[in-house]
Amino acid sequence: MAKPATQRPRVPRVGRLGLVEPSAAADLARLGWDTDDHVELLWSLSRAPDSDSALQTMVRLADALDDDWPQLNSALLKDRGLRGRLFAVIGSSLALGDHLVANPDSWHLLSGDVTLPDPAELRRLFDDCIAEFGTEPMTVMPALRVLYRDRLLVLAALDTASTVENEPVPAFSTIGEHLADIADAAMGAALKVASATVCKEGAEPPRLAVIAMGKCGARELNYVSDVDVIFVGEYADSVSTRVAGEMIRLASDTFFEVDAGLRPEGKQGALVRTLESHLAYYQRWAKTWEFQALLKARPAVGDAELGKQYMAAIMPMVWSACEREDFVPEVQAMRRRVEALVPADLRDREIKLGTGGLRDVEFAVQLLQLVHGRTDESLHVSSTVPALAALAAGGYVGRDDAANLTASYEFLRLLEHRLQLQRLKRTHTLPPPDDEESLRWLARAAHIRPDGTHDSLGVLRAELKRQNVRVSRLHAKLFYQPLLESVGPSVEGLAAGLSPEAAERQLAALGYEGPQSALTHLSALVNQSGRRGRVQSVLLPRLLDWLSDTPDPDRGLLAYRRISEAMAEQRWYLATLRDESAVAKRLMRVLGTSAYVPDLLMRAPEVIQQYADGPSGPKLLDVDPEVVGRALVASSGRHVDPMRAIAAARTLRRRELARVASADLLGMLEVRDVCAALTSVWVAVLQSALEAVVRANTRDGGEAPAKIAVIGMGRLGGRELGYGSDADVMFVCEPGPGVEESRALKWSVLIAEQVRALLGTPSADPPLEVDTNLRPEGRQGPLVRTLSSYEAYYAQWAQPWEVQALLRAHPVAGDQDLGLRFVLMADKTRYPAGGVSAEAVHEIRRVKARVDAERLPRGADPNTHTKLGRGGLADVEWTVQLLQLRHAHEVPSLHNTSTLETLDAIGAAELLGEDDVDLLRQAWLTATAARNALVLVRGKPTDQLPGPGRQLNAVAVAAGWHNDDGGEFLDNYLRVTRRAKAVVLRVFGS
Asked: What are the coiled-coil residue ranges (predicted)?
């Protein structure tokens, strides 16, 4: 039986080739590629990242070649390598396709055995171009531009060829190094042309060294990058400056943007400096970021000897930069600035500056180099991947971590290269998630293939997520895992971690002011027996990374150790931190900011579970303060013994304070909400204490000889308490039926004294101080009065300050009816029908002036005292109360004990302009937030803002400022209170 004849491959349909453009069939026919002889060529075309673009570019290239087209067509049929390189590059880069059409003979560069020239050969190519075209810029620069794009074409073709044919993929490092070599050769040519242009008639060109910085300096350049440079001249004269400026202009117009902004003093500084001038600047004025930038410095072109001298003089200063006093805060500030550069809507698409992006890797590597490079010269390398390898070899980074981070870094750099190649535009932003066509092109251009479960687009999305998560995880582990290994149990065959000295240096650079103590805490945590130690070893890298972003990581680490030791037997604690990253991250923020909350959490650890997110948001907010208040009263009511009753009340109060303070520190509550919640819990405690004492003094089942009510005064009466506020109260009683007033008063005084004593019992919780000094006659007056006694006193003897104090009187505990009747009686005094007398208003003004002059504590700064300082709480509250005294008889909406609500009424009644009302409102909110923050940070009441430093930074964070820059926060505080003070002065002067 005869064998069947071998069939020739048939031309596939257009759709099977991935061609979707309507003109595709006609374009194939136009090229003569619709015959059976071109089947293999067509399948190569179909594997191009964008086969439609590749086909359209081939049509344009055929037109440009005209009579020479058959030569290329024949070569494509014979040379598989040419097919792979040409189709890959024009399917990846529209810009290089345009270059090829404009310079059609350049296709020859992609045929045959293509290799990359070494740096010397590259320089020779650019020198030969100058030799051929001369040094007249109008003539030579266009030729140099073509040469530069030709070199990019060859490199990009080799880089992308594996997408079409199974060509070897150049190493990642090879791409960056060759791009830097091309840039060097191009800048060298631009410098020669610039020197010839400026130095006419055979004049000697100046000695000038061009120092490459950034990615070019590190020889890890992108396809499209600014090339950062610094100029060093033998003389900083006008000729040198003109040559440098002309070089920048020529290179930027022809090749790529050249940026000299990293020079001393930035764009305001001299373009060219002598070596001595550079040294003087770096010794006296340079910032930490400038030394970090110099890690990548490299003499690129120009005078080699001058460049060598520059490096020898500058680099010792680079490697001692971590000893600078401002090293840590400047490094942290740089990190914040980088994060702030990314718009929120692009954060998930930014492969350079986004979370888990390239900058995370580069920043971490550079920081570790600066920290340890002072004592280890093996770290004196400029490129990121070799630096990672050196850190791993030195034991500063785990070898597996370094390998994984390198793989992630190279993957993200590959995507960055492909995005830039497409149009030769500088970009680091992925296409939008809904632009599937662009994302699918990117996947093909990055050699990503389907995996049997997902198509190339699905694989790209999954890989991006995996790499971002891995970089974020390793970013923390990179700093802290070697630290844990240095203090953890020794395991045979594993690295011992950093030396104690290196560990201390690293912790100091990460923001820990007491690195020895921090190492002690770490050792105690990871050396716990059994499961606890193992879980801590897993948790701590991320926890320490989050702590390093807080204002006081030392205090935070100590607090974390104390809580962990107290919770040693609670399995849910470490499991929650391990399984719910939101809980762990929020806990670290709280512990690294506050001295107030950790002590509460030690005694109410269940609040940590509320740090988690629930179905409707953070569980910290799934609580109604009013419900908590009722539960507190009910809980204490189950106990006959007052001490047991108040202990039960303290337990719920402690839990509520921990919840409110945590939510406040985490930015979940506004100032008004915080004050309302704190007032609610104080009112519940007062009610519980009063009920407990009354029960204890009526045990025989008899009737109480008197009704008693507690009237809130001051911020309690205004429902605006802060963390450090006392409870200002007055006690009012009314004899029961048939009870003599003297007996009722005696019993009521006993009750009031016991309430004060019970609440004032020393405790580990924040104190419960009851202050009765606002009662009639102050400390000299009776502790308790009957309602009729109060009425008689206020009618005949009330002093202006007592009338002013009544403006905030509000019933908070005890007999509701008696409390209501008290405030109705008080209304006659504080809101009299004809208004308060002019003499009373005059006296209020006089007392205010005296308070301003005399009441500020000795040594306090009048500008930053939150209560009595300029434009502080007292200023705003006295201003509101003065307006109430003058106008409440005619404006009923001023019958309000809340400062903020009364301010709203003042604005609505147009007693002040809305701008003035807003200034007072902002001052009150700002000062209250600052005062609350002071308690949260220091753990005890205080009214004075600290000076610049770590504590002020912590106050800024606790007060809800948008970053931890205490200086910015203080400037805003001073500006807001200064403007409010101007309003206060106008009101009190009118």
From this structure: none
- CB-CB contact of 588 with 547 (8 Å): yes
- The pLDDT, as a whole number, for residue 59 is 95
Question: Which residue carries 């100032």 as its tokens?
Answer: 671
What's residue 8's pLDDT?
A: 52
Strands 272-274 and 227-233: parallel
For 989, list phi and psi in degrees, rounded to 5: -95, -10
Q: Is the pLDDT of residue 116 over 90?
A: yes
**pLDDT score at 1:** 36
Give the strand pairing for 770-771 and 727-735. Answer: parallel
- For the chain, the first-to-last Cα distance in angstroms comes to 121
Tokens of 610: 């509320």
3 state SS of 487: helix
Q: Residues 677, 680, 682, 685: is their CA dihedral positive or negative?
A: negative
The predicted model gives 450-463 an average pLDDT of 83
> DSSP code of 429?
B
**pLDDT, tens digit, for every residue of 496-545?**
567 888 888 888 888 888 999 999 999 999 988 778 888 998 888 889 98
pLDDT(491) > 60: no
Residue with structure tokens 């009031």?
A: 752
Whether the predicted pLDDT of 268 surpasses 50 = yes
Judged against a pLDDT cut of 80, whether residue 882 lies above it is answered with yes
* % helix, strand, coil for the chain, step of 5: 65, 5, 30
Q: What is the pLDDT of residues 148-164, one digit of tens each?
A: 999 999 999 999 998 88
Alpha carbon distance 621, 611 (integer Å)? 9
Q: Encode 61-96 in three state secondary structure.
A: HHHHHHHHHHHHHHHHHHCHHHHHHHHHHHHHCHHH
Domains, the chain: 1-170 (no CATH), 663-830 (3.30.460.10), 839-989 (1.20.120.330)
Mean pLDDT to the nearest integer, 874-901: 95
Q: Is 892 exposed, middle or buried (0-12, 13-18, 19+ CB in 10 A)?
A: exposed
Higher pLDDT, 344 or 26: 26
The per-type count for the chain, helices as H runs and strands as E runs, is: 41, 12
Burial of 168 from C-beta contacts in 10 A (0-12 / 13-18 / 19+): exposed
Neighbours of 337 (CB within 10 A): 11
Residue 801: count of CB within 10 angstroms of its CB: 14
Q: Residues, the chain, total?
A: 990
The tokens of 620 are what?
Answer: 């910290």
> Which residues have C-beta within 8 Å of that of residue 840, sequence separation ≥ 6?
800, 803, 885
Q: Mean per-residue pLDDT for 326-355?
A: 74
Span 366-410, pLDDT tens digits = 888 988 898 899 999 999 999 999 999 988 888 888 999 999 999
For residue 229, give every residue at least 6 positions away whose Cβ sits within 8 Å of its Cβ, in sequence order, or none.
187, 210, 211, 212, 213, 216, 248, 258, 259, 260, 262, 300
**Phi, psi at residue 522, to the nearest 5°?**
-60, -45
CA distances from 43 to 165, 450, 452, 583 (A): 10, 18, 21, 54
C-alpha closest to that of 321 among 299, 296, 289: 289
Tell me how far apart the alpha carbons of residues 70 and 47 are, in angstroms, rounded to a whole number.
Answer: 23
Average pLDDT over residues 544-558: 92
Is the alpha carbon torsion for 492, 496, 500, 506 positive or negative?
negative
Beta partners for residue 211, in sequence order = 230, 299
On whether the pTM is more than 0.70, the answer is yes
**Distance, CA of 331 to CA of 287 (rounded, Å):** 10
